[in-house]
Amino acid sequence: MAGEDASRERSSRLYPDVLEKLTTIFGTHLADVLLRHRRVETLTGEKNVIGRQNLVEALAHIGILFARAPELDRDKQLEQVAFLGDHLRRVMMESFELEVYVAIAAVWDDETPNSVGRQYDSAAAPLIRRGKLLGHVSPEEVEERFDKITNDVVSARRSKIADEDWSAWTNAADDLEGAAQKLKALKREMGAAVDAARGRASQRRMLFGGALLSAVLGVCLTLLVQAVF
Questions:
Q1: In which element (H, E) is residue 128 found?
Q2: How many CB atoms lie within 10 A of CB 54?
Q3: Are the C-beta atoms of residues 54 and 94 closer than 8 Å to each other?
Q4: What are the average pLDDT values for consecutive 10-residue runs of the chain, which has 229 residues?
Q5: What distance in Å separates the CA atoms of residue 51 and residue 94, rounded to the nearest whole number?
Q6: Which one-letter DSSP state was computed for residue 121?
Q7: How far is CA 61 from CA 68, 88, 117, 210, in A?
Q8: Spatial CA neighbour of 121 closest among 175, 191, 206
Q9: SS3 for 136?
Q10: Is 116 helix (H, G, I), strand (E, B) or coil?
Q11: φ, ψ at 164 (rounded to 5°)
Q12: Residues 6 or more apart whose Cβ sits within 8 Å of residue 1
């Protein structure tokens, strides 16, 4: 026990390998984590509540590590560092992960007919299949792109569950961010197709109404001429 105490850093009472891991986290990874935390807020326009919660948890483990360092053996100190790293990695992943799920739910919401997916399926897709609405994303392309996005999300989650190193989590965060952006782009394109389909229907109604009005006016004019002459 005495030998173990002698191997600790004198002021912090932390073991050298624990200090080395802390130095790596703060010197190499922390800036990237905070940057991604801010990027979530910038891209979504919302406060990264999940990220902030994980930052608080990370700070709590730092507090435990330094406050209880003298009574924690090497394994317990390393455990606190592992908890710290885990929460910091979650800062840069979980909010993007939630953003993807929210976006997916919004596209095909089973509880409302106003979701863009349901509107696309009912208004735009039939016209596109019949070649009546050109220049818009097709149902086949929607399905293909959605499947690719889903695969990206599944792959990212596997990296998270596997508890890989920092690079694996960073790559997974990139995949989740990319999936969220791709899904938003697909949603915009589907919305544009729906708007075009509705515009086409409105135009057809106007043309039909105009033709009907012209016919009625023609009949009325004919009857008026006959009545006069």
A1: helix 125-129
A2: 23
A3: yes
A4: 67 92 92 86 76 92 94 94 90 78 76 83 91 92 92 80 72 83 88 88 50 55 60
A5: 7
A6: I
A7: 10, 11, 43, 72
A8: 191
A9: coil
A10: helix
A11: -75, -170
A12: none
Rounded distance, CA 100 to CA 173, Å?
Answer: 11
Q: Which tokens belong to 226?
A: 């006959």
Phi, psi (deg, nearest 5) at residue 16: -55, -45
- Residue keyed to tokens 């073991």: 15
Cβ neighbours of residue 142 closer than 8 Å, sequence gap 6 or more? 120, 186, 190
* Range 178-204 burial, b when 16+ CB lie within 10 A, else e: ebbbbbbebbebbebbbebbeeeeeee
107-114 contacts, C-beta under 8 A, 24 or more apart = 107/146, 107/183, 107/186, 107/187, 107/190
Enter the pTM of the model.
0.68
213 class by beta-carbon count within 10 Å (0-12 exposed, 13-18 middle, 19+ buried): exposed
